[in-house]
Design brief:
The structure is a homodimer of 352-residue chains. Chain A is elongated. Chain A is of the alpha/beta class and 352 residues long. Chain A starts with 9 loop residues before the first strand and ends in an 8-residue tail after the last strand. In chain A, β7, α7 and β8 form a beta-alpha-beta unit. Chain A contains ten helices and 17 strands. In chain A, strands 1, 10, 11, 12, 13, 14, 15, 16 and 17 form a nine-stranded mixed β-sheet that branches. Chain A has two domains: 208 residues, Alanine racemase (TIM Barrel), CATH 3.20.20; 118 residues, Beta Barrel (Lyase, Ornithine Decarboxylase, Chain A, domain 1). Chains A and B meet through β10 and α9 of A and β10 and α9 of B.
Chain lengths: 352, 352
């Protein structure tokens, strides 16, 4: 089967580009002595996780327990949950998971530390604990070094837990400052920081310049997208996933309608420097995907170019590939024009 | 099982409110002599489609063939596809579908008319053809009355097709003008327009004022959301679906993190008049869901209120319920606090 035989809209992964992206990141990490623990949020596919492991990844990163359960089921044996896990039900699931894989978690509060304690006690397995700090994103994480020290001491006091180190997202100048200050504070208490984990494809190429960094958890680098191209972390040639779409209406010369709306591409935008609209049409880069309905893309065709006609197929480079993959059940995996395999996005929708 | 026993994040439908929304719309249509053909894009769930049929809907509306195939499989016997269907593969699927249900389609081009012709010939079943016109949205549809007449004549000339009438979305003053002009043009050619179909929950309450309207295809009215409340088409009490979410981090007094990000709530926004941020927290309406990561909601807690604490659960009213439902595999259906059923969102992700 060839790509042209697929019904649209359909996400298609170019395996050559995917493999090259995985190889390149692994080579970079090897060169700089960084451990690579890819974030599977981007592909949600155990087969691609396995490709990453086969190349030398030390394990994977998941956000939600549901993703980790799918990956453990598929045979991945070392999983970090870079997400605050809260509640009795989730602690029990974490305990069951710890019986199937080596587990570590990010914590930024007494409650999330307790989740790890309950799960470790329940499973009889040690669980790794990394203290999450805020490097400026204003998301999760402690903002004070003293709080990191306090939580680390609690982890160190519990024989069922293994203190892994400090963890943050993204890597910024503030993350360096925090780490350096933390190192002094830990040392003052006679403690050391075993590891330091950072993440974020946009700054992946300079991660090795971060003092103390031992591990990275990038995700988007596997596929890349319009956002990471805009950030200068990739070129268009590095983009492994496109949504193939068909022109279904040409109501006026300046308007084309594609069969890919927000239920196919998501409504995620990119900053202005990365481009206009809801995706880049590779064959018609001057055209702008101006608006999305749930199943329609409204494309503005600039004067002077014909634009695609009804029945024509185009490749859309998504703004944000991670949320696009999460909308689909399968990825068509191609070499050149030939479809080699339908990859099942097994962890799609595993938000719990 | 009670709602409090569910893992979060989870979409929960209040069956009492859902039933009341369905009853009210059916009563309105009955009162005004309008046929109701609900759009299933909102719930993508055959059981809810059946609830609509049981109340008097004449059939359902789908966008994509994949949705229609699921609904036909589940026993729905009258389906309109309000979407331009293009391509040989899709024409064949439409033909097979016509063997399982009474099918009509929207067309706005020779190509989409040909799809209907191929499918009708292949199946030996008549297929209904409605001419889609643009009432101002700038999406699909012919923009000239003469083009509607031309396509209608082509449909009328083919014994395998049944000309259904004119169809548009949304209903606007321009749709009235187009219809009135079309009526004269058709009459001048000795033709009549058998039906006129409009759609759009925001203006549903005044649909009966549209001259000539025979049928409506509203979707969102089943659940309502922050958008239709903002449009004045519903009150907060009419909103049947909320995403239950847990506070997983409280890094600072002014910031709370919920376990529902863009993979749970979508990135759809609402116009400013409908509110700020990515959803309304019912228990803390002053709080603003300022930013979404894939699995995190970043909530700003205004000064002077404590906001929810780690482990607390909150109900989020989504900005746009149709895209939220499409992110999940199940809907928990509740009466009061009690979960009665897990509804399977069978047509989720059926974008083809």
């Amino acid at each position: 089967m060839r790509i042209a035989d697929l019904e649209t809209p359909v996400p298609v992964v170019d395996l050559d580009i995917l493999e090259s992206n995985l190889d390149r990141m692994q080579a970079y990490c090897r060169e700089h002595g960084l451990r690579l623990r890819p974030h599977v949020k981007t592909h949600k596919c155990p087969q691609i996780a396995q490709m990453q492991m086969d190349r030398g990844a030390i394990g994977i990163t998941c956000q939600k327990l549901g993703e980790a359960e799918i990956m453990a089921e598929a045979g991945i044996r070392d999983i970090h949950l870079s997400y605050p896990i809260v509640g009795v039900g989730k602690a029990e699931r974490l305990g069951r998971l710890a019986n199937r894989a080596r587990i570590s978690v990010s914590v930024d509060s007494d409650q999330t530390l307790q989740t790890a304690e309950v799960a470790a006690t329940m499973s009889g397995r040690q669980i790794g604990v990394w203290i999450d700090f805020d490097s400026g994103a204003g998301r999760t994480g402690v903002s004070k070094v003293e709080e990191a020290v306090r939580l680390a001491k609690l982890a160190l006091a519990n024989p069922n837990l293994v203190f892994g180190g400090l963890i943050t997202y993204p890597l910024t100048p503030a993350s360096e400052t925090f780490y350096v200050n933390a190192e002094s504070a830990f040392k003052a208490d006679g403690l050391s920081i075993p590891g330091f984990s950072g993440a974020g494809t946009p700054t992946a190429a300079t991660a090795h310049l971060t003092p103390g960094l031992t591990e990275v958890r990038h995700g988007t680098y596997a596929f890349h997208d319009r956002s990471t191209v805009g950030d200068g972390a990739a070129t268009l040639e590095d983009c492994a996933l496109h949504v193939w779409s068909t022109v279904v209406s040409r109501p006026t010369p300046e308007r084309a309608i594609l069969d890919a709306g927000s239920k196919t591409l998501s409504s995620d935008r990119v900053p202005e420097y990365a481009g206009q609209g809801f995706g880049l049409i590779r064959e018609w880069p001057e055209a702008v995907v101006e608006r999305l309905y749930e199943e329609h893309a409204i494309v503005r065709i600039p004067e002077g170019i014909p634009g695609p006609q009804i029945g024509d197929r185009v490749r859309i480079l998504p703004n944000h590939v991670c949320v696009v993959v999460n909308l689909h059940d399968h990825l068509a995996a191609a070499r050149g024009d030939e479809i080699r395999e339908q990859l099942i996005i097994s962890a799609r929708g595993k938000t719990q």
